[in-house]
Design a protein that fits this description.
Layout: H1 7-23, H2 26-33, H3 41-51, H4 68-81, H5 88-116, E1 122-124, E2 139-143, E3 147-158, E4 165-171, E5 177-182, E6 193-198, E7 207-218, E8 222-225, H6 227-265, E9 267-268, E10 271-272, H7 277-306, H8 313-337, H9 349-359, H10 365-382
InterPro entries: Acyl-CoA_Oxase/DH_mid-dom_sf, AcylCo_DH-like_C, AcylCo_DH/oxidase_C, AcylCoA_DH/ox_N, AcylCoA_DH/ox_N_sf, AcylCoA_DH/oxidase_NM_dom_sf
Cofactor: FAD
Keywords: FAD, Flavoprotein, Oxidoreductase
């Protein structure tokens, strides 16, 4: 598979890198997070209105650029490198594909148009067990007189605080799948609806706990049900997993860049520590893991667009594992190679170390990906003729 970037893709990557370096640098991230978990509203408005990033992967028919997963991973990589404090992953990488897959091209158009222009910030209540199947969905829905009544709790919902739309997968009384759209502002003051912001380890991505205690919603809140809703959740979960890996890849790259810059300036025994062979070897190992993860992420993105998305799942699982390993190793090495100041608040490695620890648990982390690969391998081995040589 050819992983070389087109001229258009290179322009996306380079322009995003330059813009975020200027508008989501360390000082900007710290300003946003010092008061607690929050979003950079100015950056989000610029991304939505000036840069058009929210529609980069969406079809042109709904106002997008139609560049698909390969274009989006390049942008996600740069956002991850700068720890941009915006609800981009939850809105563009999870909510949009959930609506696309659940409602189809025609049914989703009116919703996607609003997402493409950045008018709406969306969050999705993903299964608590880190999987993509509906048996892990925490919410239930019962038919009521004028609609439905929702029950359930979700311990952590990414970017839910401040979201305009909350997409809630739920199980109906007959066990079938359903997808509801809630507008949190409509339930302000309702004791049956609780969305409590959480103060987590990584303040660059907001989390909130959701509780629905017999919340009545109208029949119009139901967007999809049955197989369409179930398949939509799986589609969005795997797409989100891929884009999370791209974020981790970008964060790992920044760990290496910070380390090389510091090692080139830090003088010990009369010379920069970057000249020491031991430091060179450790930086080289960081680079090897990053490049392996980059190949895996780019390959999975191409597979997602080239094939039926379900066939790309093994590639996404492998990319997720590679990106998780790269970020955790590089964040740890960045702290160590910065010496005595590596863990202090004034230096940036601690921000990336926290992201590495938090991201390793999102969407089930590497554990869910490894389990999936093991299951797929077992199924392949059990097929007639498996393991035979020609």
């Amino acid at each position: 598979m050819d992983f070389s970037l087109s001229v258009e893709q290179q322009m996306i990557r380079d322009s995003a890198r330059d813009y975020l370096a200027a508008h989501s640098d360390s000082a900007a991230v710290r300003r946003v997070t010092e008061a607690g978990p929050a979003h950079d509203d100015a950056l989000w408005r610029a991304m939505a209105s000036e840069l058009g990033w929210c529609g980069i992967a969406l079809p042109e028919a709904v106002g997008g650029a139609g560049l698909g997963a390969p274009g989006l991973v390049l942008l996600q990589e740069q956002l991850g490198q700068r720890l941009a404090c915006v609800p981009f992953w939850s809105t563009v990488c999870v909510a949009a594909p959930l609506l696309q897959a659940s409602l189809g091209p025609r049914g989703s158009a009116q919703w996607l148009e609003r997402l493409a222009c950045g008018e709406i910030r969306a969050a999705v209540v993903l299964p608590d067990n880190g999987g993509w199947r509906y048996d892990g969905v925490a919410m239930t829905a019962q038919a009521g007189a004028d609609g439905f009544v929702l029950h359930g709790n979700a311990a952590q919902v990414a970017d839910a605080a401040g979201a305009d739309w909350l997409l809630v997968p739920a199980r109906l009384e007959d066990g079938s799948a359903a997808l509801f759209l809630l507008e949190p502002v409509a339930f302000a003051g309702d004791a049956r609806f609780s969305l409590q912001p959480l103060d987590t380890l990584d303040r660059t991505r907001t989390m909130a706990a959701l509780r629905l205690d017999g919340l009545p919603v109208s029949a119009g809140a139901l967007l999809a049900r049955g197989d369409a809703a179930a398949q939509g959740l799986a589609h969005a979960w795997w797409h989100g997993k891929l884009m999370l890996a791209a974020e981790q890849l970008g964060a790992a790259q920044q760990c290496l860049d910070l380390t090389v810059a510091y090692a080139s300036e830090r003088i010990q025994f009369g010379r920069a520590i970057a000249s020491f062979q031991a430091v060179k070897h450790r930086c080289a190992q960081m680079m090897v893991l990053i490049e392996a993860a980059r190949s895996a992420v780019y390959g999975a993105a191409n597979a997602w667009d080239d094939d039926d998305s379900s066939r790309a799942r093994p590639d996404i699982a492998a990319a997720s594992i590679a990106a998780d390993d790269a970020l955790r190793f590089c964040a740890q090495e960045a702290v160590q190679l910065h010496g005595g100041v590596g863990f202090t608040w004034e230096y940036d490695p601690q921000l990336y170390f926290k992201r590495a620890q938090a991201a390793s648990h999102w969407l089930g982390g590497a554990g869910v990906a490894l389990d999936y690969i093991a299951d797929v391998s077992q199924d392949a081995d059990s097929e007639p003729g498996a393991g035979r040589t020609a």
